[in-house]
């Protein structure tokens, strides 16, 4: 049996990425216990982590199919939070400032971080 442990992202500006994830999700920074590198770790909760690895000279190219998803009980409140922060979001097909309801009834929105990684937030709890 396996459980999810962490996701690692290659980022151009680790400070900007940490600030973004703390602003949007209120993730707390935790100690990088693996090395003395400039990689910074954030706690997602429940022992899960986001590792932000500085790679200022590497280009990141992704599409929306390459994303990670987080769930919240109050998607409407989170969307209001995104609006307050002026974070652009869209539905799966790219309609700006619109959420999407999947066939199974789960609502979701997508947005990008400073390195253009896609993040989905949904209400699948």
Task: Give me the secondary-structure topology.
Layout: E1 6-11, H1 14-25, E2 28-30, E3 40-45, E4 48-54, E5 67-71, H2 75-84, E6 100-101, E7 107-112, E8 118-122
Parallel strand pairs: 1-4, 5-8
Antiparallel strand pairs: 2-3, 3-4, 6-7, 7-8
CATH fold topology of the largest domain = Signal recognition particle alu RNA binding heterodimer, srp9/1
Assign the structural class, choosing from mainly alpha, mainly beta, alpha/beta, alpha+beta, or little secondary structure. alpha/beta
CA-based shape = globular
Helix content class = 10-25%
Would you count the extended β strands for me? 8
Q: Over the alpha carbons, how many angstroms does the gyration radius reach?
A: 15 Å
Would you write up a description of this structure?
The structure is a single chain. This protein is an alpha/beta fold and 125 residues long. Helix content is 18%, strand content 32%. The chain has helices at 14-25, 75-84; strands at residues 6-11, 28-30, 40-45, 48-54, 67-71, 100-101, 107-112, 118-122. 10% of the residues are buried.
Key words describing this protein structure:
2 domains, 4-stranded mixed beta sheet, 2,3-Dihydroxybiphenyl 1,2-Dioxygenase, domain 1, 125 residues, alpha/beta, Signal recognition particle alu RNA binding heterodimer, srp9/1, 8 strands, globular
Summarize this structure briefly:
By secondary structure, the chain is an alpha/beta fold.
């Amino acid at each position: 049996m396996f459980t999810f442990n962490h996701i690692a992202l290659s980022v151009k500006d680790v400070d900007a990425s940490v600030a973004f994830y703390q602003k949007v999700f209120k993730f707390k920074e935790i100690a990088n216990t693996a090395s003395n590198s400039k990689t910074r770790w954030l706690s997602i909760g429940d022992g899960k982590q986001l590792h932000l690895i500085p790679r200022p000279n590497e280009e990141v190219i992704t599409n929306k199919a390459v994303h990670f998803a987080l769930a919240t009980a109050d998607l409407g409140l989170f969307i209001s939070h995104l609006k307050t922060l002026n974070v652009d979001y869209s539905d799966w097909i790219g309609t700006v400032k619109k959420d999407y309801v999947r066939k199974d009834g789960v609502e979701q929105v997508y947005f990008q971080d400073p390195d253009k990684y896609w993040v989905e937030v949904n209400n699948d709890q």
